[in-house]
Amino acid sequence: MSLLYQLHCTRRMALKTMALSVASITLPITLTNCRSKQKSIRHIVTLSFDDGFKQSSIRTAEIYEKYHLSACINVIASAHLNTFRLPNEYHKWPVGDFGLWNELKARGHEIMPHGYDHSNLSQMELSKAKDQIMRCFDVFSRELNGFDSKESVFNFPYNASTPELENWLAEQVKAFRTGGDPINPLPYKNQKKLTCTSYGPENIDNHLKQEIERLLSRPSGWLIYNTHGLDDEGWGPMTSKCLDETLERLIKIDTVAILPAGRALNTLG
Ligand SMILES: [Zn+2]
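Above: query sequence and zinc ion SMILES. Below: predicted holo structure tokens.
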């Protein structure tokens, strides 16, 4: 089965096209400088950055752009408002606003919802949890250029969901991310539930490296690792140096693609 998918292009990298099969993805890459090569993708790595800290998000985007990659940044709909109540001490750093999110999206990064106010939706009545998610989508629809909830990946705060909420949400979105085994199967049609791990509150560098090794030791798979801020920001931060070195290493491995979650799913076209 051959399926086409157009990846984000930077100024220097005009077009990447990916054809997908169940066990691997063949990735012919065409560059503006006329170089081309074939990549047979068996591993996908998604670093799924939550909470939208301003400084970390800007730095994350810069590091991804250094390697012509798109970052996956999940933000809280109301975190930039004065009325926002910090969910806990791990949210005390300044966050970006939709001006920044629109700019990063225009630069090719993926901006996805991470709740209206970061409430734990698994601990609410179902109807209230649904209302919170719809409020979140309303803000995104109003504030984020080109946002379509049906094409979005909803990232549960605390990676906490319930079967009832998941069943309902599956009809509202392209997919959702919650807690579970971080090594998912490669993208397939109608894949709704994405599972991830995270680590904290201390630095995650070593844990992330271990999870990447675990992925690469398998014949195939899609690692979704829930990251937060960089350096000193957020719960379970990673160092900028680790992010830079991780991307530099992974882009050299022919079996690996580094993609935001929504874009990885869109490989199915
Ligand atoms: Zn969060």
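Residues 50-51, 114, 118, 157 surround zinc ion (CB under 6 Å).
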